[in-house]
Specification:
12 strands; alpha+beta; six-stranded antiparallel sheet; 54% helix; 3 domains; 539 residues
């Protein structure tokens, strides 16, 4: 029998969190497309600062296109909808920005998709509009798909595949995905890159880097108040997505973490051991319920609270123990199988913490669960959120971080708005920024927070956080304590500290998602009433 390169003769479940019986078995040491990926990743990381460097003459055509589309959207909005009430005003602006991004093409569509997965970080109107960019991207012609697949894999589609759907399952900004069956019988999906996307992305990043400083304060959506930082985060993530060999390696790395932590409730599709190139990625086809199909899941006997819990634990374990985690969790990248296991999809954006930043991340989490403000600020500094020479004691004093915790729902609207504005101004004054991995982690946590509303609306959030903390402590506490140089008891969960971090009175015993939403609605209503009063001239 002829051996297929990269296919192991035994089980691959000991090296990856995969499905129980796969269409092939992976032996990473024998996979040819993995060679040289370390230097390639470093080369791509070094390219990003050059794309963002000030002083370069930007691609004038792309600058002009961006100025025209975004400027027109803002101008029409200012003339026709700016005086609407708060939520309709933001909805109108979000809709016009979404249309402008769609017209600007794949790079801006991808930027919009990243914003769309930022529930909690961006206004809900913006997130809702930009979610439409996930599945409304025009597909490339099948002729293009054929040319790319045959050039990259070195054979005719009819020879390589016994079936290949002409219509894509999904069409996104960087690539589109087709269902297929290999000539050897395995059911797969084939991810195919769009034409000339690498050149277009780099040109658009240069244009965005030139435009972003000029947009500061001009886009009236609070979460976009720092366009240069958003462009930097975007560039850090998208450039690496342009080589599918790196994405396939990300799949293997996340799968390895799941296997080594013994987490079998989350699985990763196997990339093909041979058919992975810069522009084509063939992988195992897995199916399941859509993430928000709660009725279907519960009808099949799936415990949706258990699904959420397993996702939280797996995400935290990857970041804490290995510094590797899926960086773009959203409903379109998750399926739930009838047996209750979650399938992760799309590994183009993957968080990677080097040893020093992983240690800083651990101390950040420790400070959050024990209420140690200095530990949290020191960890944020070491992660790159503050300049290395920042005076932490001055930050603590200036922001009043050691004073009694104030429940924001007890503040008047003017007090709350003034406090938010004061904190934002002071943080910017200290040079605060959001490093890529920290932003990806927070964005994922915001998604999982929102997922509680879908999968487990009556779950006690504080109790769930304590349970996740306890599970990780039981399984990995000794290892983590040894790495951090602390006693295990020093990492004990402090419920009062967690409540304080959430702005909740210590007397609160249970906090469901409905409770959290009511608190958020109270705060939002007060802020909107204040803004309305100021526009109308009322005191």
């Amino acid at each position: 029998m002829t051996e297929t390169p990269g296919v192991a003769q035994g089980s691959d479940l000991d090296i990856g969190g995969f499905s129980d019986v796969g269409p092939w078995r992976i032996d990473p040491e024998r996979v040819a497309w993995r060679r040289g990926l370390g230097p390639l990743r470093e080369q791509i990381a070094a390219e990003v600062p050059n794309l963002l460097a000030p002083g370069h003459v930007p691609p004038l055509g792309r600058v002009a296109a961006a100025c025209w589309e975004v400027g027109t959207a803002l101008g029409i909005w200012a003339l026709t909808e700016r005086r609407l009430e708060q939520s309709p005003r933001r909805a109108a602006l979000s809709r016009r920005l979404r249309v402008a991004f769609a017209r600007l093409g794949p790079t801006y569509i991808k930027l919009g998709q990243i914003i769309s997965s930022g529930e909690g970080l961006f206004p809900p109107e913006l997130v809702g509009e930009f979610k439409l960019l996930r599945d409304r991207v025009p597909a490339e012609s099948f002729d293009h798909v054929r040319r790319v697949v045959e050039a990259e894999l070195g054979g005719r589609i009819e020879t390589l595949f016994s079936e290949f759907s002409r219509e894509p399952i999904a069409a996104a900004s960087i690539a589109q995905v087709h269902a297929a069956r290999l000539a050897t019988g395995e059911e797969v999906v084939v991810k195919v890159q769009r034409p000339k996307i690498g050149t277009r992305v780099r040109d658009d990043i240069r244009a965005l880097a030139w435009l972003a400083p000029k947009l500061v304060g001009r886009i009236p959506v609070a979460a976009l108040a720092n366009p240069p930082a958003l462009v930097e985060l975007f560039a850090d993530t998208i450039v690496e997505e342009l080589d599918f060999r790196l994405e396939a390696q990300n799949m293997l790395d996340v799968a390895r973490v799941l296997a080594e932590t013994g987490q079998r409730a989350v699985i990763v599709p196997r990339p093909h051991p041979r058919y992975v190139t810069r522009r084509v990625l063939v992988m195992e086809r897995l199916d399941g319920f859509a993430w928000d199909d709660v009725v279907g899941m519960q009808g099949a006997g799936v415990d949706t609270e258990a699904v959420l819990h397993a996702g939280l634990v797996a995400f935290m374990e990857g970041a804490m123990l290995y510094g590797v985690f899926h960086g773009d969790l959203h409903g379109g990248n998750l399926l739930v199988r009838p047996d209750g296991r979650t399938v992760l999809l799309d590994f183009g954006i993957t968080g990677r913490l080097d040893p020093a930043r992983r240690m800083a991340f651990l101390f950040l989490l420790l400070g959050a669960t024990t209420g140690d403000v200095r530990a949290q600020l020191g960890a944020l500094r070491d992660l790159g959120a503050f300049p290395p020479d920042i005076d932490l004691e001055a930050v603590i004093s200036d922001l009043g971080l050691e004073g009694p915790v104030v429940d924001p729902t007890t503040l008047g609207a003017d007090e709350l708005l003034a406090q938010l504005q004061d904190i934002t101004k002071k943080l910017l004054g200290y040079g605060a920024r959001a490093p890529k991995e920290l932003m990806l982690f927070v964005k994922n946590m915001m998604f999982l927070d929102g997922a509680i509303a879908t999968l487990a609306p009556d779950l006690d959030i504080i109790g769930e956080i304590e349970e996740v903390h306890g599970e990780i402590a039981r399984r990995h506490g000794e290892r983590l304590a040894a790495e951090m140089g602390i006693e295990i008891d020093a990492a004990a969960f402090d419920a009062d500290a967690m409540k304080a971090a959430m702005g909740v009175d210590p007397s609160v015993e249970k906090l469901t998602y409905r409770d959290v939403q009511e608190r958020r609605d109270t705060i939002r209503t007060r802020l909107e009433e204040t803004r309305k009063g100021r526009r109308s001239g009322r005191p």
